[in-house]
Write a structure and sequence with these properties.
15 helices, 385 residues, single chain, mainly alpha
Length: 385
Protein backbone atom coordinates (compact mmCIF):
# COMPACT_ATOMS: atom_id res chain seq x y z
CA UNK A 1 0.00 0.00 0.00
CA UNK A 2 1.06 3.60 -0.60
CA UNK A 3 1.32 5.99 2.35
CA UNK A 4 -2.01 7.60 1.40
CA UNK A 5 -3.69 4.20 1.12
CA UNK A 6 -2.34 3.14 4.50
CA UNK A 7 -3.57 6.36 6.13
CA UNK A 8 -7.09 5.78 4.79
CA UNK A 9 -7.08 2.14 5.88
CA UNK A 10 -5.93 3.03 9.40
CA UNK A 11 -8.54 5.78 9.65
CA UNK A 12 -11.30 3.32 8.82
CA UNK A 13 -9.76 0.85 11.27
CA UNK A 14 -9.92 3.52 14.00
CA UNK A 15 -13.67 4.09 13.64
CA UNK A 16 -14.69 1.51 16.30
CA UNK A 17 -12.28 3.14 18.77
CA UNK A 18 -13.90 6.53 18.25
CA UNK A 19 -17.36 5.06 18.75
CA UNK A 20 -16.13 3.28 21.86
CA UNK A 21 -15.13 6.67 23.29
CA UNK A 22 -18.55 8.02 22.30
CA UNK A 23 -20.23 5.17 24.20
CA UNK A 24 -18.05 5.66 27.28
CA UNK A 25 -18.76 9.38 27.33
CA UNK A 26 -22.51 8.77 26.97
CA UNK A 27 -22.38 6.38 29.96
CA UNK A 28 -20.45 8.92 32.07
CA UNK A 29 -22.84 11.70 31.03
CA UNK A 30 -25.82 9.64 32.18
CA UNK A 31 -24.40 8.18 35.40
CA UNK A 32 -22.46 11.16 36.69
CA UNK A 33 -24.29 14.16 35.24
CA UNK A 34 -27.77 12.82 34.52
CA UNK A 35 -27.52 13.78 30.83
CA UNK A 36 -29.32 11.35 28.57
CA UNK A 37 -28.25 11.13 24.94
CA UNK A 38 -31.13 10.62 22.53
CA UNK A 39 -31.12 7.91 19.89
CA UNK A 40 -32.39 10.29 17.21
CA UNK A 41 -29.59 12.80 17.78
CA UNK A 42 -26.97 10.04 17.81
CA UNK A 43 -28.24 8.58 14.53
CA UNK A 44 -28.20 12.03 12.91
CA UNK A 45 -24.55 12.39 13.94
CA UNK A 46 -23.80 8.90 12.58
CA UNK A 47 -25.59 9.46 9.26
CA UNK A 48 -23.70 12.68 8.63
CA UNK A 49 -20.43 11.11 9.79
CA UNK A 50 -20.67 8.10 7.47
CA UNK A 51 -21.48 10.28 4.48
CA UNK A 52 -18.48 12.46 5.30
CA UNK A 53 -16.23 9.42 5.59
CA UNK A 54 -17.39 8.15 2.21
CA UNK A 55 -16.99 11.48 0.41
CA UNK A 56 -13.92 12.34 2.47
CA UNK A 57 -12.15 9.16 1.36
CA UNK A 58 -12.89 10.11 -2.24
CA UNK A 59 -11.73 13.70 -1.81
CA UNK A 60 -8.59 12.82 0.14
CA UNK A 61 -7.14 11.02 -2.85
CA UNK A 62 -7.40 14.26 -4.84
CA UNK A 63 -6.08 16.31 -1.93
CA UNK A 64 -3.04 14.04 -1.63
CA UNK A 65 -2.35 14.34 -5.36
CA UNK A 66 -2.66 18.15 -5.33
CA UNK A 67 -0.56 18.58 -2.17
CA UNK A 68 2.16 16.28 -3.50
CA UNK A 69 2.15 18.04 -6.88
CA UNK A 70 2.51 21.48 -5.27
CA UNK A 71 5.29 20.20 -3.03
CA UNK A 72 7.22 18.44 -5.80
CA UNK A 73 6.93 21.15 -8.45
CA UNK A 74 6.34 24.49 -6.73
CA UNK A 75 7.86 24.39 -3.24
CA UNK A 76 9.95 27.40 -2.32
CA UNK A 77 12.28 25.66 0.12
CA UNK A 78 13.69 22.18 0.77
CA UNK A 79 12.85 21.48 4.41
CA UNK A 80 13.97 18.32 6.12
CA UNK A 81 11.78 16.80 8.80
CA UNK A 82 13.16 17.85 12.17
CA UNK A 83 11.93 19.50 15.36
CA UNK A 84 11.91 22.98 13.81
CA UNK A 85 9.95 22.02 10.69
CA UNK A 86 7.49 20.06 12.83
CA UNK A 87 6.97 23.17 14.95
CA UNK A 88 6.65 25.37 11.86
CA UNK A 89 4.11 23.01 10.27
CA UNK A 90 2.13 22.81 13.51
CA UNK A 91 1.93 26.60 13.95
CA UNK A 92 1.04 27.21 10.29
CA UNK A 93 -1.61 24.50 10.27
CA UNK A 94 -3.17 25.77 13.49
CA UNK A 95 -3.18 29.41 12.38
CA UNK A 96 -4.59 28.54 8.94
CA UNK A 97 -7.33 26.53 10.64
CA UNK A 98 -8.19 29.43 12.95
CA UNK A 99 -8.48 31.90 10.07
CA UNK A 100 -10.49 29.61 7.81
CA UNK A 101 -12.74 28.50 10.66
CA UNK A 102 -13.46 32.13 11.44
CA UNK A 103 -14.20 32.87 7.80
CA UNK A 104 -16.52 29.86 7.71
CA UNK A 105 -18.69 31.55 10.34
CA UNK A 106 -18.60 34.94 8.66
CA UNK A 107 -19.22 34.21 4.98
CA UNK A 108 -22.47 32.74 3.69
CA UNK A 109 -20.78 30.68 0.99
CA UNK A 110 -18.60 28.91 3.58
CA UNK A 111 -21.26 28.77 6.30
CA UNK A 112 -23.36 26.67 3.90
CA UNK A 113 -20.87 23.88 4.53
CA UNK A 114 -19.86 24.51 8.14
CA UNK A 115 -23.38 24.99 9.49
CA UNK A 116 -23.89 21.22 9.18
CA UNK A 117 -21.40 20.71 12.01
CA UNK A 118 -23.22 23.21 14.23
CA UNK A 119 -26.78 22.11 13.53
CA UNK A 120 -26.80 19.27 16.06
CA UNK A 121 -28.62 20.22 19.25
CA UNK A 122 -26.85 17.67 21.43
CA UNK A 123 -23.18 18.20 22.16
CA UNK A 124 -20.79 15.38 22.96
CA UNK A 125 -18.12 13.26 21.33
CA UNK A 126 -20.67 12.12 18.75
CA UNK A 127 -20.77 15.73 17.54
CA UNK A 128 -17.03 15.40 16.97
CA UNK A 129 -17.67 13.06 14.04
CA UNK A 130 -20.50 15.21 12.62
CA UNK A 131 -18.56 16.76 9.76
CA UNK A 132 -20.00 18.18 6.52
CA UNK A 133 -19.60 15.93 3.53
CA UNK A 134 -17.61 18.47 1.52
CA UNK A 135 -15.42 19.67 4.39
CA UNK A 136 -12.29 17.75 3.37
CA UNK A 137 -11.94 19.40 -0.02
CA UNK A 138 -12.89 22.86 1.29
CA UNK A 139 -10.67 22.81 4.38
CA UNK A 140 -7.69 21.60 2.34
CA UNK A 141 -7.46 24.83 0.33
CA UNK A 142 -5.66 27.00 2.92
CA UNK A 143 -3.38 24.11 3.89
CA UNK A 144 -1.74 23.92 0.48
CA UNK A 145 0.39 26.84 1.67
CA UNK A 146 2.36 24.29 3.73
CA UNK A 147 3.26 22.41 0.54
CA UNK A 148 4.34 25.69 -1.05
CA UNK A 149 6.87 26.47 1.67
CA UNK A 150 8.23 22.92 1.60
CA UNK A 151 6.47 20.92 4.34
CA UNK A 152 6.82 17.34 3.18
CA UNK A 153 3.71 15.18 2.63
CA UNK A 154 5.18 12.59 5.04
CA UNK A 155 4.88 15.23 7.77
CA UNK A 156 1.72 17.04 6.68
CA UNK A 157 -0.72 14.11 6.50
CA UNK A 158 0.05 12.54 9.91
CA UNK A 159 -0.01 16.02 11.45
CA UNK A 160 -3.43 16.96 10.08
CA UNK A 161 -4.77 13.55 11.17
CA UNK A 162 -3.51 14.29 14.70
CA UNK A 163 -5.28 17.68 14.51
CA UNK A 164 -8.60 16.04 13.69
CA UNK A 165 -8.21 13.53 16.51
CA UNK A 166 -7.43 16.29 19.01
CA UNK A 167 -10.49 18.25 17.92
CA UNK A 168 -12.67 15.14 18.30
CA UNK A 169 -11.95 15.11 22.03
CA UNK A 170 -12.82 18.80 22.44
CA UNK A 171 -16.46 17.91 21.66
CA UNK A 172 -17.37 16.84 25.17
CA UNK A 173 -19.85 18.18 27.70
CA UNK A 174 -18.56 16.07 30.60
CA UNK A 175 -14.89 17.12 30.72
CA UNK A 176 -14.57 20.01 33.20
CA UNK A 177 -12.44 23.13 33.05
CA UNK A 178 -8.75 22.22 32.87
CA UNK A 179 -7.00 25.03 34.73
CA UNK A 180 -3.75 26.39 33.30
CA UNK A 181 -4.05 24.23 30.18
CA UNK A 182 -6.82 26.55 29.00
CA UNK A 183 -4.36 29.44 28.79
CA UNK A 184 -2.65 27.80 25.83
CA UNK A 185 -4.72 24.95 24.37
CA UNK A 186 -8.28 24.60 23.15
CA UNK A 187 -10.23 22.53 25.67
CA UNK A 188 -13.76 21.11 25.74
CA UNK A 189 -14.81 24.16 27.76
CA UNK A 190 -13.66 26.48 24.98
CA UNK A 191 -15.36 24.41 22.32
CA UNK A 192 -18.62 24.17 24.23
CA UNK A 193 -18.70 27.96 24.09
CA UNK A 194 -17.98 27.88 20.36
CA UNK A 195 -20.97 25.60 19.76
CA UNK A 196 -23.29 27.72 21.88
CA UNK A 197 -26.16 29.62 20.28
CA UNK A 198 -26.40 32.04 23.22
CA UNK A 199 -25.88 35.66 22.22
CA UNK A 200 -22.85 36.11 24.47
CA UNK A 201 -21.14 33.02 23.02
CA UNK A 202 -21.53 33.73 19.30
CA UNK A 203 -18.42 34.38 17.16
CA UNK A 204 -15.92 32.99 19.64
CA UNK A 205 -13.24 30.36 20.22
CA UNK A 206 -12.35 29.39 16.66
CA UNK A 207 -9.03 27.75 17.58
CA UNK A 208 -8.25 24.13 16.68
CA UNK A 209 -5.43 23.16 19.08
CA UNK A 210 -4.09 26.50 20.36
CA UNK A 211 -6.39 29.05 22.00
CA UNK A 212 -3.72 31.75 21.72
CA UNK A 213 -5.06 33.00 18.36
CA UNK A 214 -8.45 33.72 19.93
CA UNK A 215 -6.78 35.51 22.82
CA UNK A 216 -4.58 37.49 20.43
CA UNK A 217 -7.36 38.54 18.03
CA UNK A 218 -10.11 39.17 20.58
CA UNK A 219 -12.40 36.21 19.89
CA UNK A 220 -11.81 34.33 23.14
CA UNK A 221 -14.78 33.89 25.51
CA UNK A 222 -14.73 32.02 28.81
CA UNK A 223 -17.46 29.51 29.65
CA UNK A 224 -19.84 30.89 32.30
CA UNK A 225 -22.68 28.40 32.14
CA UNK A 226 -23.35 25.52 29.79
CA UNK A 227 -24.47 26.84 26.41
CA UNK A 228 -27.62 26.10 24.46
CA UNK A 229 -26.25 24.06 21.57
CA UNK A 230 -27.18 24.17 17.90
CA UNK A 231 -28.08 26.92 15.49
CA UNK A 232 -29.62 30.17 16.65
CA UNK A 233 -32.64 29.19 14.56
CA UNK A 234 -32.86 25.39 14.19
CA UNK A 235 -34.06 24.22 10.80
CA UNK A 236 -35.79 21.04 11.98
CA UNK A 237 -34.03 19.03 9.26
CA UNK A 238 -33.55 15.37 10.22
CA UNK A 239 -31.96 13.71 7.15
CA UNK A 240 -28.22 13.76 6.49
CA UNK A 241 -28.56 14.37 2.76
CA UNK A 242 -30.83 17.37 3.12
CA UNK A 243 -28.74 18.74 5.99
CA UNK A 244 -25.72 18.82 3.69
CA UNK A 245 -27.31 20.16 0.51
CA UNK A 246 -30.21 22.44 1.51
CA UNK A 247 -28.10 25.54 2.18
CA UNK A 248 -26.36 25.24 -1.19
CA UNK A 249 -29.74 24.83 -2.88
CA UNK A 250 -30.98 27.94 -1.10
CA UNK A 251 -27.95 30.02 -2.12
CA UNK A 252 -28.16 28.76 -5.72
CA UNK A 253 -31.83 29.66 -6.05
CA UNK A 254 -31.30 32.92 -4.20
CA UNK A 255 -28.48 33.99 -6.51
CA UNK A 256 -30.64 33.27 -9.55
CA UNK A 257 -33.46 35.36 -8.10
CA UNK A 258 -31.37 38.43 -7.21
CA UNK A 259 -31.42 41.35 -9.63
CA UNK A 260 -27.73 42.21 -10.13
CA UNK A 261 -24.14 41.26 -9.44
CA UNK A 262 -23.79 43.50 -6.38
CA UNK A 263 -26.64 41.90 -4.46
CA UNK A 264 -25.45 38.41 -5.43
CA UNK A 265 -21.97 39.20 -4.16
CA UNK A 266 -23.42 40.65 -0.96
CA UNK A 267 -25.42 37.49 -0.29
CA UNK A 268 -22.56 35.05 -0.90
CA UNK A 269 -19.82 36.95 0.93
CA UNK A 270 -21.73 38.55 3.79
CA UNK A 271 -22.20 37.03 7.26
CA UNK A 272 -25.09 34.59 7.65
CA UNK A 273 -27.04 37.24 9.58
CA UNK A 274 -26.74 39.90 6.87
CA UNK A 275 -30.15 41.10 5.78
CA UNK A 276 -31.28 43.14 2.81
CA UNK A 277 -33.97 45.72 3.28
CA UNK A 278 -37.68 45.43 2.62
CA UNK A 279 -39.36 43.07 0.19
CA UNK A 280 -36.14 41.53 -1.12
CA UNK A 281 -35.29 40.06 2.28
CA UNK A 282 -38.85 38.82 2.74
CA UNK A 283 -38.58 36.93 -0.55
CA UNK A 284 -35.26 35.39 0.51
CA UNK A 285 -36.73 34.35 3.86
CA UNK A 286 -39.66 32.69 2.11
CA UNK A 287 -37.29 30.94 -0.31
CA UNK A 288 -35.18 29.55 2.52
CA UNK A 289 -38.25 28.27 4.33
CA UNK A 290 -39.42 26.61 1.11
CA UNK A 291 -36.08 24.86 0.57
CA UNK A 292 -36.03 23.60 4.17
CA UNK A 293 -39.62 22.39 3.84
CA UNK A 294 -38.76 20.48 0.65
CA UNK A 295 -37.10 17.85 2.85
CA UNK A 296 -40.51 16.21 3.15
CA UNK A 297 -40.57 15.46 -0.57
CA UNK A 298 -37.02 14.10 -0.40
CA UNK A 299 -37.86 11.81 2.52
CA UNK A 300 -40.78 10.33 0.63
CA UNK A 301 -38.34 9.12 -2.03
CA UNK A 302 -35.79 7.54 0.31
CA UNK A 303 -35.86 4.06 1.86
CA UNK A 304 -35.38 3.56 5.59
CA UNK A 305 -34.63 0.70 7.94
CA UNK A 306 -36.57 -0.12 11.09
CA UNK A 307 -34.77 1.04 14.20
CA UNK A 308 -33.88 -2.49 15.34
CA UNK A 309 -32.01 -3.18 12.08
CA UNK A 310 -29.88 -0.03 11.93
CA UNK A 311 -27.03 -1.13 14.19
CA UNK A 312 -26.63 -4.53 12.42
CA UNK A 313 -26.63 -2.67 9.10
CA UNK A 314 -24.00 -0.28 10.42
CA UNK A 315 -21.73 -3.10 11.64
CA UNK A 316 -22.16 -5.15 8.46
CA UNK A 317 -21.38 -2.24 6.14
CA UNK A 318 -18.38 -1.23 8.24
CA UNK A 319 -16.75 -4.67 8.03
CA UNK A 320 -17.57 -4.86 4.31
CA UNK A 321 -15.76 -1.56 3.84
CA UNK A 322 -12.78 -2.68 5.94
CA UNK A 323 -12.50 -5.98 4.08
CA UNK A 324 -12.76 -4.29 0.69
CA UNK A 325 -10.07 -1.78 1.57
CA UNK A 326 -7.80 -4.52 2.92
CA UNK A 327 -8.12 -6.65 -0.25
CA UNK A 328 -7.87 -3.92 -2.88
CA UNK A 329 -4.60 -2.14 -2.27
CA UNK A 330 -4.79 0.32 -5.15
CA UNK A 331 -5.98 3.72 -3.99
CA UNK A 332 -8.58 4.33 -6.76
CA UNK A 333 -10.30 0.97 -6.10
CA UNK A 334 -10.20 1.55 -2.36
CA UNK A 335 -11.69 5.00 -2.69
CA UNK A 336 -14.44 3.91 -5.06
CA UNK A 337 -15.28 0.97 -2.83
CA UNK A 338 -15.39 3.06 0.33
CA UNK A 339 -17.50 5.69 -1.41
CA UNK A 340 -20.03 3.18 -2.77
CA UNK A 341 -20.35 1.30 0.51
CA UNK A 342 -20.55 4.52 2.47
CA UNK A 343 -23.44 5.78 0.37
CA UNK A 344 -25.26 2.44 0.73
CA UNK A 345 -24.73 2.64 4.47
CA UNK A 346 -26.00 6.20 4.50
CA UNK A 347 -29.21 5.13 2.77
CA UNK A 348 -29.58 2.13 5.07
CA UNK A 349 -29.31 4.37 8.12
CA UNK A 350 -31.91 6.84 6.88
CA UNK A 351 -33.79 7.96 10.02
CA UNK A 352 -37.50 7.71 10.66
CA UNK A 353 -39.72 10.37 9.16
CA UNK A 354 -41.05 12.60 11.93
CA UNK A 355 -43.13 15.59 11.01
CA UNK A 356 -41.01 18.69 10.54
CA UNK A 357 -42.48 21.89 11.91
CA UNK A 358 -42.91 24.58 9.26
CA UNK A 359 -39.79 26.71 8.94
CA UNK A 360 -40.39 30.10 10.47
CA UNK A 361 -39.54 33.35 8.80
CA UNK A 362 -35.99 34.32 9.64
CA UNK A 363 -35.77 37.10 12.18
CA UNK A 364 -33.01 39.48 13.10
CA UNK A 365 -32.20 37.55 16.24
CA UNK A 366 -28.74 36.89 14.84
CA UNK A 367 -25.68 39.06 14.73
CA UNK A 368 -26.81 41.78 12.32
CA UNK A 369 -27.37 44.44 14.97
CA UNK A 370 -24.26 43.81 17.05
CA UNK A 371 -20.63 44.63 16.53
CA UNK A 372 -18.55 41.68 15.30
CA UNK A 373 -16.25 40.22 17.95
CA UNK A 374 -12.50 40.55 17.74
CA UNK A 375 -9.79 42.12 15.63
CA UNK A 376 -9.34 41.71 11.87
CA UNK A 377 -12.70 43.25 10.90
CA UNK A 378 -12.25 42.04 7.35
CA UNK A 379 -13.13 38.59 8.66
CA UNK A 380 -16.16 39.86 10.53
CA UNK A 381 -17.61 42.42 8.17
CA UNK A 382 -21.23 42.77 9.12
CA UNK A 383 -22.48 45.02 6.33
CA UNK A 384 -21.32 44.82 2.72
CA UNK A 385 -23.87 47.27 1.37
Amino acid sequence: MSDTTKNLFYLVLAVPLLYAFIGIEAWVALKKFGKKRTWQAFMQHVNISMGQQAFGAFFELGIAVVYTRIYSQHRLFDLNINAWTILLAFVMLDFNTYLFHRLSHRRHILWANHSVHHSGQEFGLAAGVRHPWFSAIILAVPQYSLALIGIRPQLFFPLITAFYLYQFFTHSDVIPRLGWIEKVFVTPSHHRVHHGSDEKYLDSNYGAVLIVWDRLFGTHVEEQEEPVYGLVQPTGITTAVWENVHYYLYLFRAVLSLPDFKTRFQLLFSPPAFRFEGELQERLDALKSEVIGNERAYKNLMPSLPTQLRIPAFITAYFMTLTYMGIHHSAPRMISGALALGILLLIALQPDVPEIPPATTLEAKLESEREPRGLMPGLCLGDLS
